[in-house]
Design brief:
Length: about 80
């Protein structure tokens, strides 16, 4: 799905659908090692995307509990 932003048009897809994500990479002719942004509705949904250590997950939970909703970007 295409949608306007404040500066460009973006392409959106369901982060939890491998087929949808592949379609974004294909449409943009983007290499698979070039990451894309996923927007989530909250901590629980973000945790579904994390594949990391317990310490990092606990740090994420702490930061999110203090700063969400608000200006927190997590790069994983």
């Amino acid at each position: 799905m295409g949608f306007p932003t404040e500066t460009v048009y973006g392409l959106g897809a369901n982060t939890f659908s491998e087929e949808a994500i592949k379609s974004i990479f294909h449409a943009k002719e983007r290499p698979y090692n070039d990451p894309i942004i996923s927007h989530v509705t909250g901590v629980d949904q973000a945790l579904e995307l994390l594949d990391t250590t317990v310490d990092i997950i606990n740090l994420f939970k702490y930061l999110a509990s203090k700063l969400w909703p608000g200006p927190l970007t997590v790069v994983m």
